[in-house]
Design goal:
The two termini are 25 Å apart. It contains 4 helices and no strands. It is mostly helical. Helix 2 packs antiparallel against helix 3.
């Protein structure tokens, strides 16, 4: 197996696990969060997305745009739900959270060229 196929499989597996366990914890509060944080799956997915974007894959541009948008959406959701302690700075942090994956993607693509 090649690294892009492993990264693709790991990315989608972590995404499915993240959504499943997040929904399970939402449905029954404390079901998952009493044992571990659901966001560990998100961190694993971010790792595989970076690995997937670094190595060449077919139709890399559309895949990387989709995954970057998905990662931006997750950053906004996490900041929105957990951002009460930021107070008045929350709107600015949400915009920064949305833009961070796009900036990282452009930095990674410019360094590889």
């Amino acid at each position: 197996m090649s690294i892009p196929s492993i990264a693709k499989t790991g990315c989608f597996s972590a995404l499915i696990a993240y959504l499943f366990f997040w929904f399970a914890d939402y449905w029954r509060p404390g079901f998952v969060s009493a044992v571990f944080s659901v966001h560990w799956f998100l961190f694993v997915m971010i790792f595989f997305v970076v690995l997937w974007c670094v190595y060449p894959v077919e139709s890399k541009k559309s895949v990387s745009i989709f995954l970057t948008g998905l990662l931006s959406l997750f950053c906004v959701i996490i900041l929105w739900r957990e951002g009460d302690l930021f107070g008045d700075w929350l709107p600015i942090l949400i915009v920064l959270g949305f833009l961070t994956p796009w900036i990282g993607k452009s930095l990674l693509s410019s360094s590889s060229q």
